[in-house]
């Protein structure tokens, strides 16, 4: 299927990891005759520097016209002092919201070769395969009112609103349950319904949705316990479904189970399966420009794009297999480095994945 992709490298390590992901895209495009085309655009700090806004109109228009979007990462200290509404992260949030990308899939899969790189004991994580389904366009990230106001006594007060309506909960619930059907048929809904009304409703609606999926088992867990269980016995989970902020936090925790946040890809889908694909990690300013960034999360995001939006599971599997091959070969960027073995650079890792795809 011919398709057009908007590539948004973003900031700091964003362009470094995206260079490798695009090389992988070039190879699969040829090998599988995919007829994919792509163009680059500006988002985040990179856009702010050129256009004065983190999400320029041109980027938004191209994003709407594209079949899929591939994103690196945005933000970093260079723009820490800019006004809140101009922060690079606002560009990313605007894109997710404007495109209705409510369904964020964050699969935490342990490649067996990386069992030693995980911060948990190998036996705790061996065979790990969790899918975190995070609601991405609602909750406390987008709730109104929000801001920082000055009280009568002159003290400042910051406030956000944690709000979900039934239809928002229902649509993320249906996505999670339908994905569970393709896996182990288990959904764990994560909330804080012992304290927050919004998640009392969340739990009720999840129960309603569950009635449409009698073959899928629903359980509930409070978010504090879920964070603990993720590092105690993560293999108990199949699909975890949760709201925007809890999902943000839990997915970074889950990332470390897989060896490194540099391994975790993501898909952000709208109701028609169109999507944006990006690593779960950020722009890693602390290692930018040093060739230390792990490009595999972004490369695996290309695989997710091929599977979920471009309907080419064969090409997706080829990329995942190539990643497995390079790990078998012992290649490791510094974040997943093994004691006594020299780490490889971002581009050397990209080279190896490209070579594995060609054979
Ligand atoms: N989707 C996104 O664009 C996104 C996601 C998260 C954070 N951010 C932004 O990124 C900036 C930095 O945030 P942060 O430092 O809290 O989180 P981060 O994910 O950028 O970095 C956290 C730690 O993980 C390491 N790391 C991240 N990605 C890596 C990779 N591919 N390979 C090796 N190591 C990697 C970093 O070096 C750092 O030590 C902030 O501006 C933040 O808002 C953007
Ligand atoms: C950069 C930020 C807005 C973003 C989020 O909080 O969603 C990031 O942390 C992520 O996980 O994609
Ligand atoms: Mg995050």
UniProtKB/TrEMBL annotation:
Annotated site, Important for catalysis, chain positions: 141, 192
Chief location of this protein within or outside the cell: cytoplasm
Record bears the keyword Aminoacyl-tRNA synthetase: no
Entry EC no(s): 1.1.1.85
Protein name according to UniProt: 3-isopropylmalate dehydrogenase
Keyword Metal-binding: yes
Cofactor note: Binds 1 Mg(2+) or Mn(2+) ion per subunit.
Binding-site positions, substrate: 96, 106, 134, 224
GO molecular function: 3-isopropylmalate dehydrogenase activity; magnesium ion binding; NAD binding
Cofactor: Mn(2+); Mg(2+)
GO cellular component: cytosol
Subunit field text: Homodimer.
Every Isopropylmalate dehydrogenase-like domain range: 4-353
Subcellular location: Cytoplasm
UniProt keyword annotations, A-Z: Amino-acid biosynthesis, Branched-chain amino acid biosynthesis, Cytoplasm, Leucine biosynthesis, Magnesium, Manganese, Metal-binding, NAD, Oxidoreductase
Residue positions binding NAD(+): 76-89, 282-294
């Amino acid at each position: 299927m011919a398709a057009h992709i908007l590539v948004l490298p973003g900031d700091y390590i964003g362009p470094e990891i995206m260079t490798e992901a695009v090389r992988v895209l070039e190879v699969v495009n040829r090998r599988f005759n995919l007829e994919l085309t792509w163009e680059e655009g500006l988002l985040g700090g990179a856009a702010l520097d050129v256009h004065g806004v983190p999400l320029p109109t041109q980027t938004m228009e191209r994003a709407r016209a594209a079949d899929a979007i591939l994103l690196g990462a945005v933000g970093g200290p260079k723009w820490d002092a800019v006004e809140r509404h101009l922060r690079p992260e606002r560009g990313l949030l605007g894109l997710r919201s404007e495109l209705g990308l409510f369904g964020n899939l964050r699969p935490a899969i342990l490649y067996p070769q990386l069992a030693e790189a995980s911060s948990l004991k190998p036996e705790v994580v061996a065979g790990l395969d969790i899918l975190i389904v995070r609601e991405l366009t609602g909750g406390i990230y987008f709730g109104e009112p929000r801001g920082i106001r000055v009280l009568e006594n002159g003290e400042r007060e910051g406030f956000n609103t944690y709000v979900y309506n039934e239809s928002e909960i229902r649509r993320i619930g249906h996505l999670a349950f339908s994905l569970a059907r393709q896996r182990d048929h288990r959904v764990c809904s994560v909330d804080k319904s012992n304290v927050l009304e919004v998640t009392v409703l969340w739990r009720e609606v999840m129960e309603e949705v569950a009635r449409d999926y009698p073959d899928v088992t629903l359980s509930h867990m409070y978010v504090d316990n879920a964070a603990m269980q993720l590092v105690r016995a993560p293999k108990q989970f199949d699909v975890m479904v949760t709201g925007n902020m809890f999902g943000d936090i839990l997915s970074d925790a889950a990332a470390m189970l897989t060896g490194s946040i540099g391994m975790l890809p993501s898909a952000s889908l709208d109701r028609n399966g169109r999507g944006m694909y990006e690593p779960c990690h950020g722009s890693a300013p602390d290692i930018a420009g040093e060739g230390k960034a792990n490009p595999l999360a972004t490369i695996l995001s290309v695989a997710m794009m091929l599977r979920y939006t471009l309907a080419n599971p064969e090409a997706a599997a080829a990329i995942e297999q190539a990643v497995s091959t390079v790990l078998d070969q012992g290649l490791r960027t510094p974040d997943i480095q093994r004691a006594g073995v020299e780490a490889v650079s971002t581009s050397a890792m990209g080279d190896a994945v490209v070579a594995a795809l060609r054979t």
